[in-house]
Queue: 2 jobs
Job 1
Amino acid sequence: MSNGELVIQARDVRKVFRVGDVEVHALRGVSLDVRRGEFVSVIGPSGSGKSTFFHILGGLTPPTSGSIHIHGKDLRAMSEADRTELRKKEVGFVFQKYNLLPTLTAADNIAIARHIAGTEDGDDRQFREVLGLLGISGRLGHKPAALSGGEQQRVAIARAIVNRPSILLADEPTGNLDTENSAAVLALLRDLNARLGQTILMITHNPEAAAYGSRTVEMRDGRIV
């Protein structure tokens, strides 16, 4: 385990959804600490609460109860504007669906993230380092339809980390990829963790994918087991 500072501290996080007259308990008291530089795989079957937990950690949805601190900041005490700033600068997201804008080139899809965070004038050397690490420097002029699934996911990862967020949340990042591209993307995440010290939390239902992380946490029925 990394000996770095605590970047995520979740305590007794619960989430209840109401569907008609029925209460659905998606999270039943989840507690987790993640330190800077860790690569944590969160594994569990569909419906175990993994994605709900990630959406809460990323400030996309509030918990019903419990506490979440990101870099010591209380997520529940933040205004919506503060949570939006958190998502711009502190948390990068990679999803199973690449969510690239089809009318824009790969370069412009990445540039949008820099524009939203106000980092267009940032370190271009750092930007080129990320692109080189991901192996997409030669594909930046192409639109998503001209890219393979593996290349599209690499562009999505570049977009997620271009602002050097302290935390990268990857939700089933290889779910739409074949075996070869899955292995390549997982190796890239491990490389980002090792070479850049990127803190990564990755959701997966696949034990082989989970093994790429430095620590595995299993969820089942809304709890960490």
Note: The chain has one domain: 6-224.
Job 2
Amino acid sequence: MTEMLPFGRLLGLAEWDALPEDDQHRRLEVSEGVLMMTPRPMPVHQRVVNRLAVLLDEHLPRDWSAFGEVDVLVTDEPLTIRVPDVAVTSTESASANPARFRAYDVLLVVEVLSEGTRRVDRVTKFSEYAEVGIPHYWIVEPWGKTALSAYRLGPGGYELVSEYTGDSAIRIDGIATIPVDLDALAERK
């Protein structure tokens, strides 16, 4: 893969699109033109992501759809593409089957914390998603008693709406209320 990277300059969308599919168990993102590689999530993390994406999709109105691990174009210049664990976008946007969603098409992003991504999810992505106007951001902590922090975009950035544990009804303003047993998201059934 290294022969395809534009060393000495920032990665652009054309180079991103030309990258080969990754079969090395890594997740690729671009942050301000710099290619970022992190290990693929562990099984419990993936279980939480998959269950949450399905749960959201089942409880959202038909004009909204939830997806796990899709590319979201945060900014064109410098190029920033993130792969949130779950993204909710309009069904109309999804029906166009884009290679990536643009930030303005996204209603909610969810990041499930991993050992190696806590700071990126809590600080970097937190500010990036707010700066481009994604209305809702959830952070899920899957260790021990699973917890979810729900943020809503306000005038100064994301504001904490509520923190949830156990059986909860998580509200997405004006869209839906999602019933979820947070502890069951990570458990083997």
Note: DSSP finds five helices and 13 strands in the chain.
